[in-house]
Design brief:
This protein has about 240 residues and is of the alpha+beta class. The protein has a single domain, classed as outer membrane lipoprotein receptor (LolB), chain A. It has four helices and 13 strands. It has a 13-stranded antiparallel beta sheet. The longest helix has 17 residues. It is globular and about 55 Å long.
């Protein structure tokens, strides 16, 4: 009788785990849904502090994993600030000082414009499959949506986070929640997608909130007002000369 119970238990566990999809295949599907050859977007970044909030508006141009350019449009005190990413290098133009500063090393971990997003986070535009290996650990409901739960482990030395736990919408194949951990296993940041939109047959985040666990405040909300995929972007856009234009 005891042997029969053990056999049934093993069979049950085997069937349960057999139903879980391959984590790396899910990760590849997410990449296919979330990433485009290039894109142009207009968005808002709302930093919710302990006592007040401030809203910034920006326009961004992105080409693949290696090149991006952003310009802040509002409020007036931030308007004209520009950022250029070329592979692993990042430059910021400060219009009030008329200076171009390269952000590198430990400076990449600093807060971007006082938000819960670091410069390092902004640089993290590579496809997930290039940086992480994934294992599906189970199923869970998040915000009334059936999700696959994945655990991601970095496969490259320079990954900003050693591990991530991600909740993936089973139907839309979009990550609705993410927990980011350091090498010590300490939780550093969380991300939640609060609203999604369908554009050209693909699901994409519309409104999300980032929270730096080590930072006081209520998080940073990011809202995409408009986005276009696979559009032509002039080569001159991704140049240091464009920072001062």
């Amino acid at each position: 009788m005891k042997k029969l119970l053990i056999f049934i238990l093993i069979l049950f566990c085997t069937l349960v785990f057999a139903e879980l999809p391959d984590g790396n295949k899910l990760l590849k599907q997410i990449d296919e849904n979330m990433y485009a050859k290039n894109m142009i977007s207009t968005s808002q970044m709302i930093v919710h502090g302990r006592r007040s909030s401030r809203t910034m508006k920006l326009r961004s141009w992105t080409e693949g994993d290696d090149r991006s350019f952003s310009e802040y449009l509002a409020p007036p005190r931030d308007a004209g600030t520009k950022m250029l990413k070329l592979k692993d290098k990042l430059w910021i133009y400060n219009p009030s000082a008329d200076r171009i500063i390269q952000i590198s090393g430990h400076m990449l971990r600093q807060s971007m414009m006082g938000s819960d997003i670091s410069y390092e986070d902004m640089m993290e535009e590579n496809e997930l499959t290039e940086v992480y290996s994934a294992v599906t650990t189970g199923e869970e409901i998040f915000n009334d949506v059936n999700c696959w739960k994945l655990e991601l482990t970095a496969i490259v030395e320079d990954a900003p986070y050693h591990t991530k736990k991600v909740w993936i919408d089973k139907e839309k194949l979009i990550p609705l929640k993410e927990e980011r951990y350091g090498k010590s296993g300490k939780l550093l940041k969380t991300t939640e997608i609060l609203e999604v939109m369908k554009i050209e047959g693909r699901w994409y985040p519309k409104r999300m909130i980032f929270k730096d666990i080590l930072k006081k405040g209520k998080g940073t909300e990011f809202i995409i007002d408009d986005i276009q995929f696979d559009v032509n972007i002039p080569e001159s856009r991704f140049s240091k000369a464009a920072l001062r234009k």
